[in-house]
Write a structure and sequence with these properties.
98 residues, alpha+beta, 12% strand
Length: 98
């Protein structure tokens, strides 16, 4: 492998930082961009928070080739419950408008 043309420094190993790093590495047509991710914490760990992945972000994960890895660790909520249906009626039109 030849030396990279340039290096991208990403500050933060959260969802956005890691997604940015993966997208640069995955979608770079020449694969000659080095990506360094800097995180203040010593290690990445669960913090006890849940993350909802809606259809558009799921499409991005599929484009990255990560859907199988996520399926192994995800829990599928009961989306047929009344509170979930009510939330979907509010959120889906908002997401489509973006």
């Amino acid at each position: 492998m030849s030396a990279p043309k340039f290096t991208v420094a990403i500050c933060g190993g959260g969802v956005a930082g890691l997604a940015t790093a993966v997208s640069i590495a995955h979608f770079s047509p020449t694969k000659d961009i080095k990506v360094d991710v800097y995180e203040a914490k010593d290690a990445l760990a669960e913090i006890g928070a849940g993350v909802s992945i809606w259809p558009r972000p799921w499409a991005v994960l599929k484009a990255f080739g990560l859907q199988d890895d996520f399926k192994k660790i995800c829990q599928n909520p009961n989306i047929s419950s009344e509170p979930c249906k009510a939330l979907a009626k509010i959120m889906i039109p908002l997401l489509i408008a973006i």
